[in-house]
Amino acid sequence: MTQQANPVVETPAGAVRGGRDESGEFYRAIPYAAAPAGAGRFAPPAPHPGWAGVRDGTAPSPTAPQPARDFGRLDMTPYFGPGWVRGEEYLTVDVRTPAADGNRRPVMVFVHGGGFVTGSTRAALYDGSAFARDGVVLVTVNYRVGIPGFLDLPGAPPNRGLLDVLAALGWVRDTIAAFGGDPGNVTVFGQSAGATLTGALLATPEANGLFRRAIVQSGSGTGAFTPEQARRVTLAAAAALGVEPVAEAFAPIPDERFLAILPALAGLDLRTETATDPLAGLSPFSLVLPVQPADGLAAGPAADVGLLLGTTTEEGHLYLVPQGNLESSTEADVLAVAARAAADPEAEVATHRSARPGASPGELRSAVLGKALFGAGTARLARAHARISDGHTHVYSFGYRSTALGGRLGAAHTVELPFVFDLAEKPWLHGETGLLGPDPAPPGLAARMHAAWIAFARTGDPGWSAYDPRRPVAEVFTASRLSGEPGSAW
């Protein structure tokens, strides 16, 4: 039996040699923009100059400069990947496809999370084999994070990480047909910070025509900083570095120094007279916009784009359980979180306590965090989109409770990802400190959720009724609800 040669694809920038496995073909580390080096770290993404010969697309990409992240006893390596893998050429995409042929398959473009400071295409959770297996071309995107990606600096364009994602979508439009994908049927989807970026694309005029559908997993339509909030972070960063708060002064500073000052930016008080902290103190970086994406959808492609969005039922547990803070939380801790996130902290806590009679302070603290970071902004985005999209908004709620960390992790932030990517059986997600815990994943849940995402990408219909703000119901994904019974949205 003759061994088949590795596939080669011709792109506008040059030829790329990929690899084959049982799921199809893969092409890694394909540049969609020039390397952001030196002062270029604070410039818009520039076209890649291309290359001669055939580029090796079998090795993974370098990653954006980023700090190590520690989530206590929980192993989050599958989510964060290897951290900073040095190399300037990290504005790249990975492509998974059944075959780089003349077929026009649905395309899904994934934008990773990581609090606007970490993450990459190298994370094990973003293995797109199941998508290629099921007839979808999956593209995963690296983008600038931290200071190069999101610090708002005079003399530099804002939201450079978002500009990177736009550039990657432009690459998809111009190139994906060579990989067996349909540039007219693109779904962009993201989780956490990547979901907030995806929501912002809906309100971005430059995104018109780049995608047909969007999926927002545990993001927020109200997660952007105001210019005043962003200015506070910029001034703190400049003070920590001992330079003027302008792009020209930041340009010669090495990435190592940017990472070294991140602890000095943690916990900044970003509350103003007109705005609470949309990230509740968990990250000093976000988009910087004059209005929240949920309030600016008319400016972008949102009315013509189908939207699937939702949250997990215990988002806040990720930030409390692994660190041992769920049990140790006090009433003062609950009020402190509410003070960052709500205009009337006492009323906010009272609302959660009324909805959860008998809840411990830790459970209330988690609920306040979950609503502040994801729940409220997702609800607002769903309502805003439903008003303008004529029945093309679909909502889900993910409630399967991971048994990690003594069964306490629950339906925390990120727990839905193994089910979307149909990886829930992987051994590296299990064990006492694995994301899904020691118990096996419930039979059928990953297949059902993964199939819904693919159906939405193919047709715009994930398999349940569109969201109506007058009757707000959501599709529920739990171990006990495999039949697709609807639940309450908000």
From TrEMBL:
Keyword Hydrolase attributed: yes
Entry's family note: Belongs to the type-B carboxylesterase/lipase family.
Keyword match Hydrolase: yes
Carboxylesterase type B domain location: 6-463
Name this protein carries in UniProt: Carboxylic ester hydrolase
Keywords, alphabetical: Hydrolase
Domain of life: Bacteria
EC supergroup of this enzyme: hydrolase
E.C. number(s) listed in UniProt: 3.1.1.-
InterPro entries the UniProt entry points to: AB_hydrolase_fold, CarbesteraseB, Carboxylesterase_B_AS, Lipase_GDXG_HIS_AS, Type-B_Carboxylest/Lipase
Sequence segments annotated as region (Disordered): 1-21, 38-72
Pfam families: COesterase (PF00135)
GO molecular function: hydrolase activity
